[in-house]
Amino acid sequence: MARVKRGVTSHAKHKKTIKAAKGFYGRRKNTIRIAKQAVERSMQYATRDRRTKKRNFRALWVQRLNAAAREHGLSYSRLIDGLNKAGIEMDRKVLSDMAIHEPDAFAAVVAQAKDALSYLKDGNANEYERAVGA
């Protein structure tokens, strides 16, 4: 049976790890033992933060929508409630982008949401809504 020398595969594995550790500080970028641990940890962070990024962007869109809706005399929750009652199915990303780049179109959407919430003005609002003064 022929002898197998494993230097080539080991070197390729090490090279892959060192390449992934590029930009790390100190020995984390060039010592294989430490680089391996650092790369493994960085992969865990990357996996976690791909989910966190989605959360952060949704929060940003909600904040932008709240600010834009208040300029038109509605709160964010009233805006979303009005859109649902009007049957307008637009996600928060599109609405937020519309509020920034196309304010006239956003104003039209808000007007439709306000029309759908007209029951609040008719005096049919419940006790809580009257107390809040919505």
UniProtKB/TrEMBL annotation:
InterPro entries: Ribosomal_bL20, RIBOSOMAL_L20_CS, Ribosomal_protein_bL20_C
Keyword NAD set for record: no
A GO CC term attached to the entry: ribonucleoprotein complex
Keywords linked to the UniProt accession: Ribonucleoprotein, Ribosomal protein, RNA-binding, rRNA-binding
Ribosomal protein among keywords: yes
One Pfam family linked to the record: Ribosomal_L20
Gene Ontology biological-process entries: ribosomal large subunit assembly; translation
Highest taxon, organism lineage: Bacteria
GO molecular function, a single term: structural constituent of ribosome
Annotated family: Belongs to the bacterial ribosomal protein bL20 family.
Biological role stated in the UniProt entry: Binds directly to 23S ribosomal RNA and is necessary for the in vitro assembly process of the 50S ribosomal subunit. It is not involved in the protein synthesizing functions of that subunit.
Protein name per the record: Large ribosomal subunit protein bL20
Organismal lineage: Bacteria, Pseudomonadati, Pseudomonadota, Alphaproteobacteria, Hyphomicrobiales
